[in-house]
Design a protein that fits this description.
Blueprint lengths: L6 H25 L1 H7 L1 H16 L1 H12 L4 H26 L2
Helix pairs in contact: 1-2, 1-3, 4-5
Length: 101
């Protein structure tokens, strides 16, 4: 059985991932200016920060997927853990799109 990290450690790890992702996005924008001009520097840094936060939180996402799927398969749990928030956001987006017609 693995030892669980405290929520304070998880919080710090997520912030570290967000900051590292933002720095990587900024560096990509500096060294690949054509790419940054196509997307925009701010969205590039923002999406890089989001990706860094997600990568730093993979264990928690796998744990959430395990709670839902009740399986020991880490890949399945990762897919379920990522799919549930995406599905909820898709439903919210669909409801907003239907209400604003």
């Amino acid at each position: 059985m693995t030892r669980k990290r405290s929520s304070k450690q998880n919080w710090g790890r997520q912030w570290l991932g967000v900051i590292a992702g933002a720095i990587v996005g900024l560096l990509v924008g500096v060294f690949l200016p054509d790419f940054a001009n196509q997307i925009g520097l701010f969205p590039l840094v923002l999406w890089s920060a989001i990706l860094g936060g997600v990568l730093a939180s993979l264990e928690e996402i796998i744990g959430a997927g395990a709670v839902i799927s009740r399986q020991q398969n880490r890949l399945l749990n990762l897919i379920v853990g990522l799919a549930v928030p995406a599905l909820l956001l898709g439903i919210v987006w669909l409801v907003i799109a239907l209400l604003t017609r």
